[in-house]
Design brief:
The structure holds 2 protein chains of 2 kinds. By secondary structure, chain A is mainly α. Chain A is built from 3 helices and no strands. Chain B is built from 6 helices and no strands. Classes of the chains: A mainly alpha, B mainly alpha.
Chain lengths: ~100, ~160
């Protein structure tokens, strides 16, 4: 059981990292970060399940709620970015663009 | 098939679904499909949380995370339209970094002893409302500020250029 959950958690974290580093679209970066969040939730529950399950329960309850808040703020920022720049390409955002 | 084997089969199925949908979400070109696949990843992770014994958390994850967060992302994608693709030059460094991250996280987690838990909801509720009352108040304030921030930013008061 632990082995399967460890693999799933690690792979979710790795896939999220890959997506966040390679995507040009800010929406895809956000989605990749959310995939990493799912991996982190699983890891936290695994680590607390054998010692302090009640604490893990509270921790994840707060994490999921705060994760929702974070996504809400980020989606609002993305919409504002799109209105101002007409793009969600992170490489075209002033200050983040690639200097050749 | 014994109960233990059936449990392992469920665990494997949920794990495979989570990994496959996450991989497809990262690889797909369309942001909309990526958002929908993120929802499937969330459902699979909720199934894993439920199998671990945290049934209430699994339901909470489905309702709040998949029901609210992923829907929020999907509507955001609908508003901003098509995405911008991927950066090919970053593929190799990103793949190496991801492999290192996978190795590090797996090494950290593989020594953990995991057991199915049974959380007493009444006890957890008392602990939550008495032990973490301040945190709950701050969480409620954060949620309220989210609504205000979301409304003001999306209504365009940030100003257009």
């Amino acid at each position: 059981m632990g082995e399967i959950l460890a693999v799933v958690s690690a792979v979710l974290f790795g896939l999220g990292t890959y997506g966040a580093l390679t995507s040009r679209s800010a929406v895809k970066v956000l989605i990749s970060l959310e995939i990493m969040f799912n991996g982190a939730v699983l890891a936290a529950l695994m680590l607390t399940s054998s010692t302090v399950p009640g604490t893990g329960f509270q921790l994840i309850l707060f994490s999921v709620a705060l994760g929702s808040v974070e996504v809400g703020v980020l989606v609002s920022i993305l919409i504002l970015l799109y209105r101002r720049m007409r793009t969600v390409d992170v490489y075209q955002v002033p200050g983040l663009e690639v200097v050749e | 098939m014994s109960l233990l084997n059936l449990f392992t089969v469920y665990l494997l199925l949920a794990g495979a679904a989570a990994v496959a949908s996450a991989a497809l979400a990262v690889r797909t070109k369309e942001d909309f499909y990526a958002a929908v696949l993120l929802g499937i990843t969330g459902l699979s992770v909720a199934a894993l949380i439920g199998l671990l014994g945290y049934t209430f958390l699994a339901v909470f994850h489905v309702l709040v995370y998949v029901g609210a967060t992923v829907m929020f992302v999907i509507f955001g994608v609908v508003l901003v339209g098509r995405g911008a693709g991927s950066e090919r030059r970053m593929a190799l460094p990103a793949a190496i970094t991801s492999l290192l991250v996978v190795g590090a996280v797996y090494t950290l987690l593989r020594q953990t002893t995991v057991s199915r838990v049974s959380v007493d909801l009444a006890e957890a509720a008392v602990e939550l409302f008495e032990g973490s009352a301040t945190a709950l108040v701050f969480l409620a304030l954060t949620l309220a500020s989210l609504v205000i921030a979301g409304l003001s930013i999306a209504s365009g008061r940030g100003g257009e250029r």
